[in-house]
Amino acid sequence: MSNLENLYQAILGGKREEAVDATRLALAEGHSPQYIINNGMVQAMHEIGGQFECGRAFLPHLLMSARAMKGALDLLNPLMVGENRRVSAGRVVIGTVKGDLHDIGKNLVASMLEGAGFEVFNLGVDVPNDVFVSAVRDHDADIVCMSALLTTTMGNMKEVVTALTAAGLRNRVKIMVGGAPLSEGFAASIGADGYSANANQAVMLAKNLLGLTK
User: Fold this and answer.
1) 154, 184 contact by CB (below 8 A)
2) Closest to 25 measured CA to CA, from 88, 72, 74
3) What are 18-71's pLDDT values in tens digits?
4) Where are the CATH 3.40.50.280 domain residues in the chain?
5) Which class is domain 3-83?
6) Cα–Cα distance between 27 and 208 in angstroms, integer?
7) Residue 113: is its pLDDT beyond 50?
């Protein structure tokens, strides 16, 4: 198998060290970082996401594949610094809202979006409203993703929407929300553009919101 095929299989199987090794060998063959992402990582994450939707893969598989992909991506990112590139899929700012410290689901969504070709800026947890606003402005974001796992913090998502509106940025970005206590109805009630119940749906929603689906 080629090194790109090895990378694809390693990510699909959730094998981080093998994914990193295959990426290193693909670079040695002369493939560009973006070529490796598009022809190895994106395809593998698309496949594991499809298996998850069909019930042939489960959350642990997604987590392992995301971890393997992230390991390979960490090897490529320093090589792409200074290229002044804009990932064709778009730029995403993601974070867990103020008062909430949960990050497993948010990090999985971030990894899946990276695997799908988005440029992701992960703000972490307990993110204040003004930090979301600054990140949208600084990174020229196309999408804001907010996560909350507590009923006591999900209301803070509305505050972020309000802050983006006050800053004159709301019309520039699509807003996605996710987390266990949320629903489509809640997303609509706070003025978000969409809700996703899991990481794979988040990728599909992001693509739909930016008109990237065929």
Assistant:
1) no
2) 72
3) 999 999 999 999 998 888 988 888 889 889 888 988 899 888 898 899 899 989
4) 91-209
5) mainly alpha
6) 32
7) yes
